[in-house]
Design brief:
- This protein is α/β, with parallel strands linked by helices.
- The two termini are 21 Å apart.
- The protein has one domain: Metal-dependent hydrolases (TIM Barrel, Alpha-Beta Barrel), CATH 3.20.20.
- It is globular.
- It has an 8-stranded parallel beta sheet.
- Zinc ion (ZN) binds next to loops.
- The site of zinc ion has 5 residues, from loops.
């Protein structure tokens, strides 16, 4: 393997499930050279949470998974927590839009508290459904997103945004919305970015790129901040629906082995961008273990 010693290798967005491949997926990540994961929460119970207690349980599962992969595999996993924006669709039907919004905002405040207690590093995923919703739900979604941005400002942390693909104008609008809520654009990450964002064109919003081979090649010499992610879903019913968790370290190895690029490039997504957006650097011990 030609990844340099001491280089953290970071997947910036994935999910793990206690009922999925879980630790085995992280073992593949580690074997390929991976060291750190940003572990986004998800709904683990098969139904949309309809109480704050249910969200609390969900966040606990994410936190336990993060501890488990650290203890069993030596990979550091940083929890990223929030009620999933799409939960609002079903919760609005079941509880009514006003109660659904109230629950969602309480769950965002709970996630913010976890960040302040250093049990999570960002609020995510927050944002908007990637499909059309009724006008009534759309109003609630916007209100919830504003609340998410304010909660991130209050907890001094980044937001990881879920939305449909955004054009440069959409990214600029997102930067403006963040600023309105008191959040610097560098604290706004567009997760699942599937096309290159030309440096300087997004108002400072940070792309987290899906680690497809062509896209990685296209962006690998861009100045930061930007990230690589798989959005690995760990759903045994949908094998191969997304990139495998081993993908980011494999792409990193390809860059390191390419004489036209080289391993120096990798400090941008894996270390410098984390420092710019989150305020700290992931580190690897001299023995190669994530710290
Ligand atoms: Zn995700």
């Amino acid at each position: 393997m030609s990844l340099p010693r001491g280089l953290p290798v970071v997947d910036h967005h994935c999910h793990l499930s206690p009922n999925g491949d879980g630790v085995r997926a992280v073992e593949r990540f580690r074997a390929a050279g991976g060291t750190h994961l940003f572990l986004a929460t998800q709904n683990y119970e098969g139904t949309v949470p309809l109480s704050l207690e249910a969200y609390g349980r969900q966040f606990e599962v994410t936190s336990r998974l993060a501890q488990k992969v650290h203890e069993e595999v030596g990979v550091r996993a940083y929890p990223v927590l929030a009620p999933y924006p799409i939960d609002l669709v079903e919760a609005s039907t079941k509880l009514g839009p006003a109660a659904a919004l109230e629950l969602h905002c309480s769950a965002l405040d709970l996630a913010g508290r976890w960040v302040r207690e250093k049990r999570a590093v960002a609020l995510g995923e927050v944002g908007r459904p990637h499909f059309p919703v009724s006008d009534e739900v759309a109003v609630v979604v916007e209100e919830a997103f504003r609340h998410a941005l304010q909660a991130a400002r209050d907890s001094d942390c980044p937001v990881v945004v879920h939305s449909s693909d955004l054009t440069a104008d959409g990214l600029l609008a997102l930067a403006a919305q963040g600023r309105e809520a008191g959040l610097r654009p560098e604290r706004v990450v567009k997760h699942y970015s599937r096309s290159r964002v030309a440096p300087g064109s997004a108002g400072g919003v940070v792309p987290s790129y899906l680690a497809r081979r062509d896209l990685v090649r296209e962006v690998s010499t861009d100045p930061g901040p930007w990230f690589l992610e798989t959005d690995y879903l760990d759903d045994p019913k949908r094998p191969g629906a997304v990139l495998d968790l081993a993908t980011v370290p494999r792409r990193a190895t390809a860059i390191a082995e390419d004489p036209a690029q080289g391993a120096d490039r990798l400090w941008v997504p894996f270390v410098e961008s984390v420092e710019r957006v989150y305020g700290w650097r992931p580190e690897v011990s001299p023995e190669g273990a994530a710290e």
